[in-house]
Specification:
Keywords: Metal-binding, Oxidoreductase, Zinc. The chain is an alpha/beta fold and 359 residues long. It has 2 domains: 179 residues, Quinone Oxidoreductase, Chain A, domain 1, CATH 3.90.180.10; 134 residues, Rossmann fold. It has 12 helices and 17 strands. Helix 8 runs parallel beside helix 9. The longest helix is centred in the middle third of the chain and has 12 residues. It is globular and about 65 Å long.
């Protein structure tokens, strides 16, 4: 099959690799219908997340079930499904405590041997472990692109909102309008906030933030804390979602948060961050940081099907799989206002084994 492979630092190439095979009776093989590129894919390609070279990229996917293991009973051949970026077994002590984000038996798709060696979703086919447990059926009324978001960015942004927005009427400040920040903005609207303020340095992203629910926008080069103080009569933001991963973002969050407010950190930081502990202490600030909860995809799919959410606008570019190398270059350079590309037209070759069951 064809797959986007990272053979060396800074390079992505579409090349032929072996088709995935069922390894366990709980496995499912998907034909990939849609995928995308995440910021962490760029970090992997550029060597910022260590893993041995030669791995297939991609952890976001919507696919059609083409093979199932003998123990799979809920997922059927031909089903259109979406899955999480990071699978979980559901039976280990970590999973049984509800901490599925860091299942020691799992890993992250498209991240190589250092992260579970699971294969990547930027390919014609993908093997998914524990298929019955982690895959969600996509309703007929939902487009592939809409469904694609629930396996990573929409779930992550929503997790930050649930952890930091504690009631209606809140002022929600989102620092960074990449896909996760935009997802936080979009899902925050479910909770009846009085205002949602988006901060970014790119005008196109601020316009997209407005389309997804932001009521106010502030440039990253402005005095964000002062802008929030003006909007709130000096009270500050009840919820600050740090989705930028930039060095100055946490200091901005601390300055802008209200007394008794909450900061949720989902931005990926590549270096240690200075924490203004005295300010946090005297303002009685609660801090939550973590990965997105990928175990509630069905709830997000239901909200999309009901018309309460539509994350499709965050896909600023639609490209065929044959142009995925171009998509990486464009996304890395921020060319043409690209925020997130929707990669489709993944035409697979014929699988020699056809549909198989393994017990």
């Amino acid at each position: 099959m064809r797959a986007a492979v990272c053979p060396e630092q800074g390079t992505v190439a579409v090349t032929d690799v072996p088709d995935p095979e069922l390894r366990a009776p709980t496995d499912v093989i998907l034909r990939i219908r849609a995928t995308t590129i995440c910021g962490s894919d760029l970090h992997l390609r550029n060597g910022h997340i260590p893993t041995p070279w030669g791995f297939c990229l991609g952890h976001e996917y919507v696919g059609e079930v083409v093979e199932i293991g003998g123990a799979v009973s809920q997922v059927r051949i031909g089903d259109r499904v979406v899955g999480p970026a990071a699978p979980w077994c559901g039976s280990c002590p970590t999973c049984r405590r509800g901490r599925i984000q860091r299942c020691p038996r799992g890993g992250v798709f498209g991240s190589g041997a250092a992260w579970g060696d699971l294969g990547g979703a930027q390919a014609e086919y993908l093997r998914v472990p524990w298929g019955d447990r982690i895959l969600s059926a996509v309703p007929d009324t939902i487009e592939d692109g809409q469904a694609l978001t629930v396996g990573d960015v929409l779930s992550t942004g929503w997790t930050a909102v649930r952890r930091s927005v504690h009631g209606p009427g809140a002022t929600v400040l989102v620092l960074g309008c990449g896909p996760v920040g935009l997802s936080a903005i979009h899902t925050a609207s479910l909770y009846g906030p009085s205002r949602i303020v988006a901060v970014d340095s790119v005008p196109e992203r601020l316009r997209l933030a407005r389309a997804l629910g932001a009521t106010h926008t502030v440039g990253a080069d402005e005095d964000v804390a002062a802008a929030i103080a003006d909007l709130t009569d000096g009270l500050g933001a009840d919820s600050v979602i740090e989705a930028a991963g930039a060095d100055a973002a946490f200091a901005t969050a601390t300055a802008a948060v209200s007394i008794g407010g909450t900061i949720a950190v989902v931005g990926i930081h590549g270096a240690p961050v200075e924490v203004p502990m005295a300010d946090l202490l005297t303002k009685n600030v609660s801090i939550w940081a973590g990965l997105g909860d990928l175990g509630r995809m069905d709830e997000l799919l239901a909200l999309i099907a009901a018309g309460r959410l539509d994350p499709a606008p965050m896909f600023t570019h639609h490209l065929p799989f044959d142009r995925i190398e171009d998509a990486y270059r464009m996304m890395d350079a921020g060319a043409n206002g690209m925020v997130k590309p929707l990669i489709t037209s993944i035409t697979p070759g014929r699988r020699g084994a056809g549909i198989r069951l393994r017990s």
